[in-house]
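Students often ask why we bother encoding 3D structure as a string. The short answer is that it lets us treat folding as translation between two languages. Here is a chain of 64 residues written in the first language.
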Amino acid sequence: MFERYIIQDGENLSLIAKKFNTSVEMLQDINNIDYPNMLRAGSEIIVPKSKEKYFEYYTIEKGD
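And here it is in the second language, the structure alphabet:
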């Protein structure tokens, strides 16, 4: 469900969250990050394993 990710030069949690279709808050929570500005290139964090969304929304229609 999760994998390790090495932060690249110029990346921040916002960019990484977009890359993995998640939120900054989720990344902070699963990595116990209190001070995101302290992250540096080369640091390792945990991110969702798939870059795809885990869930799709479906609207139930009459006849389903």
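Translate back mentally: The beta strands are 2-6, 44-48. Keep this in mind for the problem set.
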